[in-house]
Amino acid sequence: MIPLSAVSVGKVGPSQSNLVTDQVTDQVTDQVNRNVDGIEKEQDVSQHILDFCQVERSKKEICEYMGYRNRTFFTRKYLFSLIQEGKLQMTKPDKPNSRNQKYIAVKYQKE
Hints:
It is built from 4 helices and 3 strands; from the N terminus they run H-H-E-H-H-E-E. It is mainly alpha-helical.
């Protein structure tokens, strides 16, 4: 291998502005893709929860089915948002912290 002088590299190699532009483009593309993947994953998780909750389910049952161990995180991230959107309902809405609390998808709720 023959080492090139700084002048040779300057004439032959990529320009510094192209390197910066390519790097920024790659970083932004990766960030956008991660955000889109995250949104799609969250929608998939929400849909799986709703499908699973066709019958009344406890928070523990839902977390185990979805593979989550941290119930607090799971509740804040998914259950509360589904309840606020009106897609999931508590069986005991007057006692949200009841140990007997169960959740059911709205379209499958008993009347």
